[in-house]
């Protein structure tokens, strides 16, 4: 009988999060799971001639990160279409990227900047103006989505979507108009964000083969950051089963490098109950395998329960019919033992939702169902206890790192100091998981969220919470690992490193436990392992990893990503070279302005419009 293991990873400092064996030097893997942990000497007998042996060079090793609320399936289908401003330190740099991408994007395609950034991350502390967007992209449609509050469309995009003076404002939203009634290109959620998403959905889609490539690239990008698992919370315009074909095909072909537990998000307002009844006849929770499995319903259960989290606008009051709508769906789910999660930002909304869930619980107990409230920024002590009593969990994200300044403007610093009340939730014993809600608001980068948990800071540098509310590094890590595993019912399989658990772990670029706090948000992975298989390698480990897929189509922003902004840079550091950045080139005067061809033939009119002060 062959007792040799498939792989031995040794000479590391493995943080296991297993309280019985908190740190080991080596782990052995067989058939995708950990079979033994200890030091190399104690595991040497398990090594055979075919065993892969990896010397970790004394580096820290952590359990794979698990994003408990994200939108990987949708993001994967669109990754190769999107220009990312995540971590870009100046608006000038962002606009240079936009200009370059507009030049290479062929008609009828758009340039799309879809979330992952905040105006406050830029040294200029603002968004671009519509004049600036039109100047760098006069012919190519451009769509820029900022959080849940607004979208900027250039003139070409307005023509592409067909918005004119005769287009009415949809409910809860505004198409900004000039003095003659013509749309300017600014769409504003007040606070209903559906106009933003519906407009984005009008853009061209990738061909299926490019969607497959796009999804593979996006998963590799997550692996680069140490992510090995996610819970996909569905999304608007993400139809089941059609929009799941790509991820399903990758799973069948063994090409997933991130484990995905997916929830189903209702697609038809006032027909939500029919959606879930239809899906219940097609799929059951747990269907699939360790790489792709169904996880129940949500985050949208009924559209009347959507309390849009736009902190520029007053809190919305949910319609009176919400309880009846939600009761009908919640009964269907509880009767069939479908786990569910529901989007809820405000305590006032959560109060009404819990009234419904308590009624359902009396008819069909929710105990053991692993149901959850998503977001819960302003949840109060009474509702935390009600969630605990019903056996629910709370999945939080670092949305306040992107919207904290606007929250303080509307509700004050004192309210922001407990938004969300992380320590209160932990003290109550309610299951708590951490995620990103990527990619339409926050970045998919988990290290921005971990930095926020540790520091209370927004990406713009505003400290929202007092030091006493900041988490220690182990507690924060647990929320992103074993905490998240609860939300897919997989606590026995992932979140810790112990015998029998899935062999999912990574080597951070610096020691998470000792790196200075400000550098936590710049961390990435040198080596990421999923099921004992190396899926990402950098530096000393690059040769162990499969090559990155070549992005398609060739004009895709992903094909031209130099990686320059993959590590988050503080705006203050970016601004250190001078007091006044150029509006186009930022603080890259010497490199960009002297080595780049101007984007239009008439330099004076172009640079004059954007205020470039660089010398040629």
Write the SSE topology.
Elements: E1 7-10, E2 13-15, E3 23-24, E4 26-30, E5 33-38, H1 40-43, E6 52-55, E7 60-63, E8 65-70, H2 72-78, H3 91-104, E9 111-114, H4 130-136, E10 142-146, E11 150-153, H5 155-161, E12 173-177, E13 183-189, H6 194-200, H7 208-224, E14 227-232, H8 245-252, E15 259-264, H9 272-280, E16 292-297, H10 322-335, E17 341-344, H11 347-363, E18 372-375, H12 381-389, E19 393-397, H13 400-411, H14 413-416, H15 422-427, E20 432-435, H16 446-455, H17 473-479, H18 482-485, E21 505-508, H19 517-520, E22 525-530, E23 533-537, H20 571-574, H21 589-593, H22 603-610
Parallel strand pairs: 1-6, 2-7, 8-14, 9-10, 14-15, 15-16, 17-18, 18-19, 19-20
Antiparallel strand pairs: 1-4, 2-3, 4-5, 7-21, 10-11, 11-13, 12-13, 21-22, 22-23
Major pleated sheet: 6 strands, mixed
Distance between the termini: 73 Å
How many runs of DSSP E, i.e. beta strands?
23
Low-pLDDT runs of 5+ residues are 570-616
List keywords for this structure.
globular, about 625 residues, disordered C terminus, five-stranded mixed beta sheet, about 20% strand, 23 strands, single chain, six-stranded mixed beta sheet, alpha/beta
